[in-house]
Structure formats: structure tokens, C-alpha cells
Specification:
Blueprint (H helix, E strand, L loop, with lengths): L1 H22 L8 H17 L19 H11 L2 H28 L1 H5 L5 E4 L5 E7 L4 H16 L3 E7 L5 H15 L5 H9 L7 H10 L4 H7 L3 H16 L7 E4 L2 E4 L4 H14 L6
Parallel strand pairs: 2-3
Antiparallel strand pairs: 1-3, 2-4, 4-5
Helix pairs in contact: 1-2, 1-3, 1-4, 2-3, 7-9, 7-11, 8-9
Length: about 290
């Protein structure tokens, strides 16, 4: 994002200098206000290409000769809020394009998203709304989001939550996920209890953390450690990574509701609103 922003600002600077230098014949004695007006016009037009709501109604000022580039630079340096506006517009456009790509990918990923034999299902398996969460056990925001998920499951008995192991933050995350995949396969174990015990652990979560949580629920830690690098466990985690790559998911937590990806710990209120929309119109955002 930073690299794209720098390229955008550089492009804008060039647009301001070249475009307005060629718009009209140079005029002598132009005022500072005229120079600033020209810069503002270029900024508004550039922003409009990223944000359709941006205004371009500023009256066009005459062009200027001389050290035009210096005038542009001085105006931008004196008004740093312009740079923030441009960065915000660029980010909004990037997120819009990312979401559009994600919607297309989501339509093609229904089976791996909702029918994988190794994902964990919490809540009502026949719920009318499904939330898919990609998480990492060393993600602080995932820990925070866990409380929101628990609250949703407690208050709404018609929601299904699918958990997908997406360890990306450390080797400890990967090792804990490998143990968790095996725990999820044991129908005699309450996975939610394991899940909350791991997240409640202090410090960095790793293999030992997950093994201790599993052992406290009656599982054999030696067998779990022996099987943690098996092909079936590796394949289960790899499938989640493949889905994440197709959806441009590179962080945790990420939630999928219908045709949208909610990036980050968005909070229980937003999730409630999206669930309501799914029931009202079949989409996470009703038009």
C-alpha cells in the first residue's frame, strides 16, 4: 500500500506540473492564489478518479510559467491534509477492488469453504446463517474476536460458525494448528473447550500450549505430537491457505458472511448487523 501511495503521489505531482503548463498560454504576474487554485483543481480531478464522490467544481485557474513545480511542492507541504485525502482515496479504491475480486472468488469456493471435512463447526450445524473465520492462535485480535463469537453463539441459536486454521504469524502458530486439527477430528472432545483454553494461555502459543490443552481434555499428547506432521494434517492446513490465497486473505482474523469478507476484529455489533442482513435480503449488505 505504501509503495502504491508513493507512486500515486508522484503521478499526481507530474500531472499537476505537465497538464496545467500546457492548458493555456503562460500568463505573467499570476498570483499565489491562482497557483494554489490550479493545484487544487488537479488534486480534485485526481481524487475523482479514485472516488466518484470527489468534487471537481472548482473554477479553473490560468496556467503559470516559471518555477511551477516549486509552487506545487510548497502548496502540498503547506497543506498536508491533501496527502491524507489522497491516501484515503487510494485505500478506499484498493479495498473496493479487493472486495470485488473476493466476491467473484467466493462464488467459486463454496465447497472448500463450507464442506471441508477438517474444519470445525460451532453453534447450530443447520443454522440459517454461516460465519467462516480464518484465525491464528497467536493473533491478539483473534483472541478479542473469540469473545464476540462466543457471545453470538450464546444469543443466536440459529448461527453456524466454521473455524479454519490459518497459521501465519509464527512456527508456534503452525505447530499449534497441527495439534488443533487432530483435536477437531476427535468427536469425543469438546473443540470449543480446547479452543478457548489455548487462546486463554499466557505468552506465545506453540506446540506445548496446544498439547497441554489437549491433554487436559483427556487426549494423549505423545500420539498427537507423533502425528502432527502427517500428510493428512499438512493437507488440511494447506487447503485453508489455498482458499485464503484465492480470497486475498493475508491477515487474521477474517470473517466470511455470504458474499463479503469482514477483515479484522470488526466487533459483535457489525456481525449482528450482517447476520440480520443475510436473513432479510440474503446478502451481508442489503441494497
Amino acid at each position: 500500500m505504501q509503495a502504491r501511495t508513493i507512486m500515486f503521489l508522484s503521478g499526481l505531482f507530474a500531472v499537476v506540473i505537465i497538464t496545467f503548463a500546457l492548458l493555456q498560454q503562460p500568463q505573467q504576474g499570476i498570483s499565489r492564489a491562482d497557483v494554489e487554485a490550479m493545484i487544487d483543481i488537479a488534486i480534485e480531478e485526481k481524487l475523482a478518479s479514485f472516488d466518484p464522490t470527489a468534487s471537481t467544481n472548482t473554477a479553473r485557474a490560468p496556467a503559470v510559467d516559471g518555477d511551477f513545480g516549486s509552487a506545487v511542492e510548497n502548496h502540498l507541504m503547506s497543506n498536508p491534509q491533501i496527502l491524507q485525502r489522497m491516501a484515503n482515496a487510494l485505500q478506499a479504491q484498493s479495498e473496493l477492488q479487493q472486495n470485488q475480486r473476493a466476491k467473484t472468488a467466493l462464488a467459486a469456493l463454496k465447497a472448500p469453504l463450507y464442506d471441508d471435512p477438517d474444519h470445525v463447526v460451532l453453534g447450530n450445524p443447520e443454522g440459517d446463517v454461516t460465519i467462516v473465520e480464518f484465525f491464528d492462535y497467536n493473533c491478539g485480535f483473534c483472541r478479542k474476536a473469540l469473545a464476540d463469537v462466543i457471545q453470538l453463539l450464546d444469543e443466536d441459536k440459529n448461527v453456524r460458525v466454521i473455524l479454519k486454521e490459518f497459521p501465519i504469524l509464527s512456527q508456534g502458530s503452525v505447530d499449534a494448528a497441527r495439534i488443533a486439527v487432530q483435536v477437531a477430528r476427535d468427536s469425543n472432545i469438546d473443540y470449543m473447550e480446547f479452543h478457548t483454553r489455548v487462546f486463554s494461555s499466557r505468552g506465545q502459543i506453540n506446540k506445548d500450549t496446544a498439547l497441554q490443552a489437549a491433554a487436559s481434555l483427556g487426549m494423549n499428547p505423545i500420539e498427537l505430537e507423533l502425528q502432527m506432521n502427517s500428510k493428512s494434517v499438512s493437507d488440511a492446513i494447506a487447503r485453508t491457505h489455498q482458499i485464503a490465497e484465492a480470497l486475498d486473505i493475508t491477515s487474521t482474523p477474517n470473517f466470511i458472511l455470504g458474499d463479503e469478507i469482514l477483515r479484522g476484529a470488526v466487533g459483535v455489533d457489525e456481525m449482528r448487523a450482517k447476520i440480520k442482513n443475510m436473513r432479510d435480503c440474503g446478502k451481508a449488505t442489503c441494497s
